[in-house]
Amino acid sequence: MERLFDTGEEPRHRTSVPPREAPLAVRMRPRALDELVGQEHLLSEGSTLRAAIETGEPHSAIFYGPPGSGKTTLARIIATACRGAFEEASAVNAGRAEVRAMIGRAEERRRVADEPTIFFLDEIHRFNKAQQDALLPAVEEGLVTLIGATTENPYFEVNSALLSRTQIYELRPLEPPHLRSLLDRALSDPERGIPDPPEVEPAALDLLATRSDGDARIALTALERAVETARAGDHRVDVATVEDALQRKALTYDREGDRHYDYVSAWIKATRASDPDASLYYLAVMLEGGEDPRFIARRMVILASEDVGNADPMALLVANAAAAAVDRVGLPEGRLNLAQAATYLALAPKSNASYRGIQRATAHVHEHGAKPPPAYLRDAHYPGAKKLGRGVGYVYPHDEPGAVADQETMPDGVEGERFYAPTERGFEAELGRRLEEIRRRLGRS
User: Fold this and answer.
1) For the chain, how big is the Rg over CA atoms in Å?
2) pLDDT digits over 159-180, tens only?
3) Among candidates 295, 376, 367, 369, which has minimal Cα distance to 338?
4) Fewest CB atoms less than 10 Å from the CB: which of 18, 23, 102, 381?
5) Cα 172 from Cα 68, distance rounded (Å)
6) pLDDT for residue 254
7) Among the residues of 153-215, which ranges form H helices?
8) Which residues make up the CATH 1.10.3710 domain(s) of the chain?
9) Residue ranges of the chain assigned to CATH 1.10.8.60
């Protein structure tokens, strides 16, 4: 469907049939709900979205999901099923002037024929604040039903005012069975699919469904390419043909977007869970997706203290060494340093006692304020310090048995507070025993 902005054309009420020469992925685009595969969590019987489509009364919504999951398809199904004019634009090309023109046409339709307007805006995350604000009044007044589509998390990219007036629907990547059904349909539909297809091995279709990253466009485009190759060579579509058609697909990863946060979050949680295989997997995804290795190294340094801590003090040294190595050698060799650190951190004994300790201490300071330290602990390295009592009476621990001084080091009013609670894991267990011995000796246990 062509863009309607700047063309002088009237919006259509129904989607058009793609020409025979259109790519297979375009020809096979589902035209009705019963042709759509996947997204059962959104379109099950009785669901809000399905009811809105079936009754022809859509509400403003934003479809958020990975490429090839059906966002545009679902918008066009809504356009076909619902009463009203349908206008479509891409945020890559449209600006405030085009939005105002669309709103003007919507006002005219309402005035002349009381006809509603459905406005589909692809890649809505590319609209800046001013452009989104230009849409807001029309959506707020119900003049326009907005259907936005985005691969980026709308909570990061769309104005809160616009978000509050739309329903967010998250589409999931298609599962291999969904893709397999689409591939089978393309081979069995002589009108929209592949006419007179060659023989295709079931294993080849299974491979396509598995290796297409949940993206219907990738699967159908690769099938079309594999069929062309098989016909040119006068043979059937087998696994080797499909592998050649797929080649090495680009990873669905955006260093600036939602997946950046999703994969680093998954890496942190898998490493914290002591799973070196998952840690390496998410590390590989980030590196193959073009993530900055220095960003990954910084996360490793943080995790070494937050999740390993004194259970294995070497973890921080390993993470710091990996960060220094990445700065020195760069990629691709630096991936070896990151892999070594990732597996070490994953298998190290875990403790968040240091993290929890600083959290408790910080909370205490926020609640009670910063109490002054005892005078004997304060700085005494300036003239007149002793006259103020600074450093007077300080007991030097190295002169005491076991290098432990029996002298209060907490401020007045904070004595007896406990912030650090060592775990029984790794080296921290030894630190815990030493702490208990110190407290027992000083009578503070």
Assistant:
1) 31
2) 888 888 899 999 988 899 999 9
3) 295
4) 381
5) 10
6) 55
7) 154-157, 160-163, 176-188, 202-211
8) 374-442
9) 176-246
Q: Do residues 39 and 70 touch, judged by C-beta distance below 8 A?
A: yes
The Cα 157–Cα 128 span in angstroms is 9
CB 183 within 8 A of CB 242: no
Task: Determine the 3-state secondary structure of 138 from DSSP.
Answer: helix
Measured CA to CA, the distance from residue 6 to residue 118 in angstroms comes to 18
Burial class (CB in 10 A: 0-12, 13-18, 19+), 338: buried
- In 28-173, beta strands by DSSP E: 61-64, 85-90, 117-122, 144-150, 167-170
CATH topology of domain 24-170: Rossmann fold (3.40.50)
Place of tokens 């004019």: 85
Higher pLDDT, 226 or 254: 226
**β-pair type (144-150, 61-64):** parallel
Contact 215, 174 (CB under 8 A): yes
Tokens of 71: 């966002």
Residue with tokens 């990732």: 342
> What pLDDT score was predicted for residue 17?
57
Look up residue 91 and give its two tokens.
């945020």
Q: Where are the alpha helices (DSSP H) in 234-333?
A: 239-246, 258-272, 276-288, 293-303, 314-329
Using pLDDT thresholds of 50, 70 and 90, give the confidence band for residue 257: low
Diameter of the chain by CA atoms? 101
pTM over 0.85: no
Instruction: Supply the CATH classification number for the domain 258-347.
Output: 1.20.272.10
Domain 176-246 part of CATH 3.10.620.30: no
Average pLDDT across the chain, whole number: 85
* Phi, psi (deg, nearest 5) at residue 432: -65, -40
Band of pLDDT at residue 54, cut at 50, 70 and 90: confident
C-alpha distances in Å from residue 381, one per residue of 207, 390, 392: 74, 9, 12
> Cα separation of 316 and 299, whole Å?
11
- Tokens linked to 123: 């890649």
- Give the pair of three-digit tokens for residue 26: 């375009």
| Structure tokens that stand for 412 in this block | 């007045």
Domain with CATH 3.40.50.300 in the chain: 24-170
Domain boundaries 374-442, corresponding CATH code = 1.10.3710
Q: Which of 337, 266, 341, 284 is nearest to 308 (CA)?
A: 341
pLDDT of residue 134: 83
Q: Among 59, 51, 124, 112, which Cα is nearest to 88's?
A: 124
CA distance 78 to 96: 25
